[in-house]
Amino acid sequence: MENTDKKLAEIYNDLDELDNDFRNANLISKLVKLILGKSILEIGCGNGALLGELVKLGKKVKGIEPNLEIINIAKKINPNLDIVQGFAEELDIIINEKFNNILMIDVVEHIEDDNKLVQGLGKFLETNGELIIFVPAYQALYGKRDKEIGHYRRYNKKTLRLLLEQNGFKIVRMNYWNMLGILPYLISEKIFKKPLETSLRNKKQKNPIKRMISKLLFYWFKYIENNINFGFGLSLICIAKKK
To answer: Please, are residues 2 and 64 in contact by the beta-carbon 8 Å criterion?
Structure first.
């Protein structure tokens, strides 16, 4: 667990500013349009990038993050964010209010007992409140990078639907995202047996070719990936309501 926490902190510390991180900038842009409520709880809020964008829109936000190093990174970026240190499994201890939306972005795959976690989320949602989940897709792609950053599993539409529906949620919409990432991920993890290279998203100095590729990828996600449902992708986005 300690090695995983350190690895995750290193990843967040190396990430470029949001405008230069083609993946997170466009994911957040897509998610913001899906979040309709005024009060938001993000479980596993990372560096607070999504919460920061929601604050700009006048939302009331609260974040939970277990990794103190990552919280410190978030506070440097946005000192005013309301972030509590704690684990997703400790919601009953940490939270005593309800929200219009609960967000778990790249979180559920880190929870060993995902069934127990989702089972307890409904009590923290207002009537007609929505749960928004973003997870890595396809168990067949599970590889070295998943293990390094503490993933227990990956999901597909069937497994995520079952997890939600058997715990009191009704699916509103569900679709795959990041079609472009599947082939390089497959080649890296399954053929070369090594984690996918992510330097294009890092803040370290990029050479001109890397800068150009990063910019092209940014526009791909902005104008194509975020507007077309290809029916498959490296990740899965789901919106669900309490039954």
So the answer is: no
225 token code pair: 């990936």
Could you tell me which residues come within 8 angstroms of residue 186 by beta carbon, excluding any fewer than 6 positions away?
A: 141
Structure tokens at 138: 């396809």
Q: What type of residue is 2? A: E
| Per-residue model confidence as pLDDT tens digits over 134-162 | 999 999 999 989 999 999 999 999 999 99
CA 95 to chain CA centroid, Å, is: 20
Question: How many structural domains does the chain have?
Answer: 1
pTM beyond cutoff 0.70: yes
Residue identified by tokens 């970026």 is 77
Which of the four pLDDT bands, split at 50, 70 and 90, describes residue 210? confident
How do 60-65 and 99-105 pair as beta strands? unpaired
Question: Where does the chain have alpha helices with state H?
Answer: 2-14, 22-34, 49-56, 68-77, 91-94, 114-119, 144-148, 157-165, 182-186, 208-220
Contact partners, residue 47, CB within 8 Å, separation at least 6: 12, 15, 70, 73, 74, 77
Length of the chain: 243
201 contacts 181 by C-beta, under 8 angstroms: no
β-pairing, 99-105 vs 39-43, is parallel
**Could you tell me the residue range of the domain that residue 212 belongs to?**
2-242
| pLDDT for position 191 | 84
Phi-psi region of 159 (alpha: psi -120 to 50; beta: other; left: phi over 0): alpha
How do strand 169-177 and strand 83-85 relate by DSSP bridges? unpaired
